[in-house]
Write a structure and sequence with these properties.
By secondary structure, this protein is an alpha+beta fold. It folds into 2 domains: about 70 residues; about 170 residues, no CATH class. About 20% of the residues lie in helices and about 25% in strands. It is built from 3 helices and 11 strands, in the order ααβββββββαββββ. The strands form 3 sheets. Strands 1, 2, 3, 7 and 10 form a 5-stranded antiparallel beta sheet that branches. α1 runs antiparallel to α2. The longest helix has 30 residues. The protein is rod-shaped and about 115 Å long. The two termini are about 40 Å apart. The N terminus and C terminus are likely disordered.
């Protein structure tokens, strides 16, 4: 429908609506103060009632006098679908450095850890949907045929950054509840090539879960590597630094 047609349609409805109001008003006035002589009162009542009952204010409609919603009020608001994103400050150019990992007192492996900060899940999706953040660690390699099983990488002690990291990142769970799940390294390191789902290896592991959004979650934890004693020195993982593999959001269905 063109703009001209829309304006003409609105004008026509306004005229017809006004006629309907006038006919209804005439019925009420005649009922309260009937005029004399009264020989045409019944005809007048009938004519006005029939006119009032006929509604030409909407194309194709018949039978009743109705109030129609103005065209400019047919849509008063639109809710955006929103998005959900996961970010950390760590990239291939800025990885998390665990530094030198040392032989543990029990002489069962090389153990090292570092703070893993600023995990941000920003959910603006409509519908107060739940979300689950999962992570998986692949095998680490020096590029020369030496590997450390991804099951020997763990992420634990996840806390909202308002509680343990400065500056305040304004962690905001919204109306939902966010639960953190620890994924600790195994009691003994897993050898390269051995299948399993210990630590963050082998499968997607739940890290954070929100009962509903929207939310702006900021969390930090501890990333730990527990390498087997069979690991040869020196082994370089990703340019002397170890990074957490990509972390992906998995929205839960409503």
């Amino acid at each position: 429908m063109t703009e001209k047609q829309t304006i003409e349609s609105v004008d026509e409805r306004l005229v017809n609506f006004t006629r309907c109001v006038l006919a209804l008003s005439a019925l009420i006035i005649i009922y309260i103060d009937p005029s004399e002589p009264d020989r045409l009162v019944n005809i007048t009542y009938t004519t006005l009632a029939l006119y009032t009952g006929y509604d030409p204010s909407k194309p194709g409609s018949q039978g009743r006098c109705a109030f129609h919603e103005p065209a400019f009020l047919s849509r008063i608001a639109t809710i955006p679908p929103g998005t959900i994103t996961v970010t950390t400050p760590y990239t291939p150019a800025n990885p998390l450095n665990l530094g030198t990992v040392n032989l543990n007192p029990a002489l069962t492996g090389y153990l090292g850890s570092a703070p893993f900060q600023h995990i941000n899940v920003f959910d603006t999706r409509s519908g107060a949907q739940a979300w689950t953040l999962t992570a998986i660690a692949g095998d680490m390699s020096d590029g020369a045929g030496h590997f450390i099983n991804g099951q020997n990488l763990g992420l634990t002690n996840l806390l909202p950054e308002t509680a343990n990291v400065l500056p305040n990142r304004n962690n905001n769970a919204g109306l939902g509840t966010i639960t953190a799940t620890d994924n600790a390294v195994p009691a003994l390191p897993v050898l390269a090539g051995v299948a399993g789902t210990a630590g963050l290896g082998g499968a997607q592991h739940t890290v954070l879960h929100a009962t509903q959004g929207p939310s702006d979650a900021w969390y930090s934890g501890t990333l730990t590597l527990f390498a087997p004693t069979t690991t040869r020195s020196p082994i370089v993982t990703r340019s002397s630094q170890t990074t957490l593999p990509p972390v992906m959001p998995k929205p839960s269905p409503i």
